[in-house]
Amino acid sequence: MPNKLMVVIPCYNEEEVLHETARRLTVKMETLTEAGLCDASSRVLLVDDGSRDRTWEIIQSLHRENPLFEGLRLSRNRGHQNALLAGLMTARDHCDVSISMDADLQDDMDAMDRFLLAYREGCDIVYGVRNKRDTDTFFKRQSALAFYRLMKGLGVDITYNHADYRLMSRRALQALGEFREVNLFLRGLAPLVGFQSDTVYYDRSERFAGESKYPFKKMLAFAIDGITSFSVKPLRLITTLGLVIFVISLAMLIYTLISFIVGKTVIGWTSTLASIWMIGGIQLLSLGVIGEYIGKIYNETKRRPRFIIDRYLNGEGADPVRDQ
């Protein structure tokens, strides 16, 4: 018997692309249903992350015109990861399996067929991975690859070129709900869930309309969140660096004493000034890294809700958990 599928799509100021996204998804869901890959009761959940344009009005219109579309509105903008989590935690009580994707039509919808086939073969999590990054600028492509290599080097279990296009079964969603951290990095949390997983490769298209919601500043903040949420190696690197500088200082002490004994006590101005600047810079950098971790601890201890739901439009008359 086909399983009920819920496609979860976080939306932030997507009025330019939402109608086309809905049109393509309508065709795709009909194709999946006809192929027996999902049940006719399957739905698309559009999550409005506090948009400032007509995104919520369009979601309401789509819901009235077609029962395929459901809408979830957050009380305010909470960021992509929180909006996606809100959708997934709502979907877990109304579906057998979910697929998350972005609204910008860059993810290949045809890959959903292979997602569901892998799910039928026993996989609880299926990762959508880009074949290449030709649609990215040179800087974005190289910085993204550097980020994934850095995460791997820090011991984080993460899949190269995988964003948030993935399938998760209901039991995988239930397990994901057990992770209570406030600092969200879902592409790092999904592998921690465990369970059987697979990878589906696809070609990513250019954005259909509108602008990217991840400029450089947000990408940098997202990368820092990912690193500090899943690895303490930066703190250990600070310790190692401190030991190296301590050894160097001992060597310099011995050199100074020998210079004093042999009568060569004039120290060069350049080497002294360079040493002061180097050590001062390392200290400030170290304090900054430690501060990032302290900030994460501060956010976690407050235990504020990661999202608050304002409205939920569905055809079942159900009302999900209001905040989490």
Structure description:
The structure is a single chain. The protein is an alpha/beta fold and 324 residues long. The longest helix has 34 residues, at 269-302. Mean pLDDT is 77; it is low at 317-321. Strand 1 (5-11), helix 1 (18-34) and strand 2 (43-48) form a beta-alpha-beta unit. An 8-stranded mixed sheet has the order 7-5-6-4-1-2-3-8, with helices on both faces. It has 10 helices and 8 strands. The chain has helices spanning 18-34, 55-65, 80-91, 111-120, 138-153, 170-176, 186-193, 216-230, 233-262, 269-302, and strands spanning 5-11, 43-48, 69-74, 97-100, 125-130, 162-169, 197-202, 309-313. The chain folds into 2 domains: 5-213 and 306-313, Alpha-Beta Complex (Spore Coat Polysaccharide Biosynthesis Protein SpsA, Chain A); 233-302.
Write out the CATH superfamily name of the largest domain.
Answer: Spore Coat Polysaccharide Biosynthesis Protein SpsA, Chain A
CATH class of the largest domain: Alpha Beta
What is the correct CATH architecture of the largest domain?
Alpha-Beta Complex
Q: Strand order across the biggest sheet? A: 7-5-6-4-1-2-3-8
Q: Provide the low-confidence segments as ranges.
A: 317-321
Alpha-carbon Rg, integer: 25 Å
Strand content: 5-15%
The main sheet comes to: 8 strands, mixed
The helix/strand order is EHEHEHEHEHEHHEHHHE
Number of domains: 2
**Could you give the count of β-strands?**
8
Global outline: elongated
Question: Number of helix segments?
Answer: 10
Q: What's the CATH topology label of the largest domain?
A: Spore Coat Polysaccharide Biosynthesis Protein SpsA, Chain A
**Structural class based on helices, strands and sheet pairing:** alpha/beta
Percent helix: 40-55%
Chain-averaged pLDDT:
77
Distance between the termini: 32 Å
